[in-house]
């Protein structure tokens, strides 16, 4: 028994010894494996080390010393740390690492140090960001798409969160894209401005006398007339000193100043710039300067000279105002007086009308006069030549002349001449109707308020005494309306179109001072959207609005209309006669004419009552249909004129007068039949 127990204990001791030996070897292997794994992990994740230790052995050794001295964990116990990493195959791994196996670059921090570290980290983050941007560029330009520690130098790493770093990179990219976009836009705008400038230079008028620059007057050299201005100033000062010298009985000096003034004025002549001055002008200016210097030495007194110049200024202003009134009167007079050739034409036509027996002659195509499927025009005029131009220009551009019908109404004085002209010069294909306004028996003073007013003695006195001084003193604003032509119902007949043409549904009204440049048939297909009048609006900024024509100080006007409402123009108007009759437009016109018995609600003429009558009943047409201003504005856009369907010579400078603006006259004269025997007999030529 004893022997057995001895053997058993010996075997037990042997097993314990072997087991202890095996565990010791296994522990050593495990320690080696951990060290190797840790080194592998260290080689693959060097980017997570502190920026002071990457790729620098000396700093690693210094880190070991700091770790040994004061950077060790606060607790001497071995702490298990759970770490995640990515192996060489890209798989995510989780391992437990002992704190004693960490490298010296790992630093233990206390939560109380976070605030201090945060304050010192701003500059490091900025430097780290710049380094990471360069590092990202290197990644994008690498050939194989992988980073190898031995092939590329290790960049300085950042302690910034990778997500924040990515956001910052994206923000920088957006900034770059936005900058590039703005640069492109700036280049496009520059190109547009350059193209507009080039286009503008092509439209400039370079034919101004005495000018050799392509630029407008505001871009000319401001010193181009310096000598001319000097000489004019010298003349003014010479007259001032001459007046003072005469008051002081300095006869010799007075004569010298007046003589020098006349010579300087003669040297200037009609010059508008230094280039147009006579060669001796500069010498004349020097001589005048010497004379003024003598006068200044003898007569100069600041208060006296200032008083004299002020008196000269006031006198000049008074003269200018007087000349403006005279000029306005003379322009109105020249515009309203019929020139001799135009007076000759209706006389010759009327004479032949009765001598050759055309009283009983009629126009063909009478069946077209009331055909609503055709294109009808209304022209109310006493000017034979102007009416012929309207008809000719319309038919020249008409695609189907045989579908056009012209309804012409004139007065008794010109009826025979108007009818004779179109009998001997019938328009090809089109139908013509010529009527006398005095034959409209329904148009009488009991029905028409404006006719009742025109027949009153007070109205006749207003018109026929307009040439008296008392009337002229009122001003030139209403002078153009103080003309007996407004006594004619031709001017107001446009408000009675449904009564004149009771069987028509739509008609195009044309003034006699227009020229047609395109086919007008598309106007009949324009949808007026329930409106009565189709017209081109004329308001631009603050011009040609209701307050220009109506008296808004009167409550009858201010309570019914808006002062900034946009105006429009007579001259080319599409009228829906069916809608006109439905809404009783003529009744509205009569109502307001009755209210304006004393002529205080609006300015004279037919446009103001037209604005009132068709208020909120006018459909705006495209501006290219009707371009106005050729009778008063010499600065119209040439391209707009050439592209317009109708050009209108509204104003005093009618194309058949010598007052006409020269550069606009050709648009009208090209449709005048200058080879006609009647025009040649009356010496009417282009």
Quick summary:
By secondary structure, this protein is an alpha/beta fold. It contains 23 helices and twelve strands.
Q: In words, what does this structure look like?
A:
Pathway: Glycan metabolism; pectin biosynthesis. The protein is an alpha/beta fold and 686 residues long. It is flat, with a radius of gyration of 50 Å. The longest helix has 43 residues, at 2-44. It has a seven-stranded mixed sheet with strand order 5-4-3-6-9-8-10. The protein is built from 23 helices and twelve strands. Helix content is 49%, strand content 8%.
Mean pLDDT: 79
Secondary-structure-based class equals alpha/beta
User: What is the CA-based Rg, rounded?
Assistant: 50 Å
Low-confidence sequence ranges: 35-76, 112-158, 207-220, 466-477
| Count of beta strands | 12
- Overall, the morphology is flat
Number of helices: 23
Topology:
Elements: H1 2-44, H2 57-69, E1 80-86, E2 92-98, H3 114-140, H4 162-203, H5 226-247, H6 251-268, H7 281-299, H8 302-336, H9 340-355, E3 375-380, H10 384-397, E4 404-410, H11 415-424, E5 431-436, H12 449-454, H13 457-464, H14 469-472, H15 497-500, E6 506-510, E7 514-516, E8 533-535, H16 546-549, H17 555-558, E9 572-576, H18 577-583, H19 585-595, H20 607-613, E10 618-620, E11 626-627, H21 638-643, E12 646-648, H22 662-669, H23 677-681
Parallel strand pairs: 3-4, 3-6, 4-5, 8-10, 11-12
Antiparallel strand pairs: 1-2, 6-9, 7-12, 8-9
Helix pairs in contact: 5-6, 5-7, 5-8, 6-7, 9-11, 19-20
């Amino acid at each position: 028994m004893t022997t057995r127990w001895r053997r058993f204990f010996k075997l037990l001791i042997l097993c314990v010894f072997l087991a202890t030996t095996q565990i010791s070897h296994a522990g050593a292997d495990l320690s080696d494996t951990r060290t190797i794994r840790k080194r592998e992990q260290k080689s693959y994740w060097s980017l997570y080390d502190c920026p002071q230790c990457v790729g620098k052995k000396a700093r690693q050794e210094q880190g070991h010393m700091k770790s040994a001295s004061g950077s060790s964990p606060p607790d001497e116990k071995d702490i298990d740390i759970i770490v995640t990493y990515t192996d060489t195959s890209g798989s995510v791994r989780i391992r437990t690492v002992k704190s004693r196996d960490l490298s010296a670059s790992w630093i233990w921090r206390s939560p109380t140090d976070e605030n201090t570290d945060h304050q010192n980290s701003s500059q490091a983050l900025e430097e780290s960001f710049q380094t990471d941007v360069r590092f990202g560029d290197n990644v994008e330009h690498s050939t194989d798409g992988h980073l190898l520690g031995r092939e590329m130098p290790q960049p300085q790493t950042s302690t910034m969160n990778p997500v924040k770093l990515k956001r910052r990179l994206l923000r920088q990219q957006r900034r770059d894209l936005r900058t590039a976009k703005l640069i492109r836009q700036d280049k496009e705008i520059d190109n547009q401005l350059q193209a507009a400038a080039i286009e503008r230079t092509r439209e400039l008028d370079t034919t101004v006398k005495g000018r050799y620059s392509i630029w407008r007057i505001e871009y000319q050299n401001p010193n181009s007339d310096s000598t001319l201005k000097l000489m004019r100033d010298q003349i003014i000062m010479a007259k001032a000193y001459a007046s003072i010298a005469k008051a002081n009985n300095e006869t010799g000096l007075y004569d010298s100043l007046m003589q020098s003034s006349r010579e300087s004025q003669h040297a200037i002549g009609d010059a508008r710039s230094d280039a147009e001055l006579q060669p001796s002008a500069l010498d004349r200016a020097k001589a005048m300067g010497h004379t003024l210097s003598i006068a200044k030495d003898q007569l100069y007194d600041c208060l006296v000279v200032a008083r004299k110049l002020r008196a000269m200024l006031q006198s000049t202003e008074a003269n200018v105002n007087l000349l403006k009134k005279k000029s306005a009167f003379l322009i109105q007079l020249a515009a309203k007086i019929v020139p001799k050739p135009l007076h000759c034409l209706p006389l010759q036509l009327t004479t032949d009308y009765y001598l050759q027996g055309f009283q009983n002659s009629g126009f063909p195509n009478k069946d077209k006069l009331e055909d609503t499927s055709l294109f009808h025009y209304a022209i109310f005029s006493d000017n034979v030549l102007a009416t012929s131009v309207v008809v000719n220009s319309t038919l020249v551009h008409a695609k189907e002349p045989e579908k056009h019908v012209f309804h012409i109404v004139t007065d008794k004085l010109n009826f025979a001449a108007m009818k004779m002209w179109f009998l001997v010069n019938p328009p090809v294909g089109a139908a013509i109707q010529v009527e006398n306004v005095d034959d409209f028996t329904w148009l009488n003073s009991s029905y028409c308020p404006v006719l009742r007013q025109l027949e009153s003695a007070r109205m006749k006195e207003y018109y026929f005494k307009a040439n008296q001084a008392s009337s002229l003193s009122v001003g030139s604003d209403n002078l153009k309306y103080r003309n007996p032509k407004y006594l004619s119902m031709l001017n107001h007949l446009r408000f009675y179109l449904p009564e004149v043409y009771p069987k028509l549904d739509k008609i195009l009204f044309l003034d006699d001072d227009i020229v047609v440049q395109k086919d007008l048939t598309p106007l009949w297909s324009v949808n007026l959207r329930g409106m009565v009048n189709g017209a081109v609006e004329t308001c631009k900024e603050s011009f040609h609005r209701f307050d220009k024509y109506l008296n808004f100080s009167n409550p009858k006007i201010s309570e019914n209309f808006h002062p900034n409402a946009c105006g429009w123009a007579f001259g080319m108007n599409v009228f829906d006669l069916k809608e006109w009759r439905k809404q009783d437009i003529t009744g509205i016109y009569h109502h307001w004419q009755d209210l304006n018995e004393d002529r205080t609600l609006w300015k004279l003429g037919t446009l103001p009552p037209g604005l009132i009558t068709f208020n909120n009943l006018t459909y705006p047409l495209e501006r290219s249909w009707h371009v106005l201003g050729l009778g008063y504005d010499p600065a119209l856009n040439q391209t707009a004129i050439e592209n317009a369907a109708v050009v209108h010579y509204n104003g005093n400078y009618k194309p058949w007068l010598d007052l006409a603006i020269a550069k606009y006259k050709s648009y009208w004269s090209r449709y005048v039949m200058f080879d006609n025997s009647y025009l040649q007999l009356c010496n009417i030529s282009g």
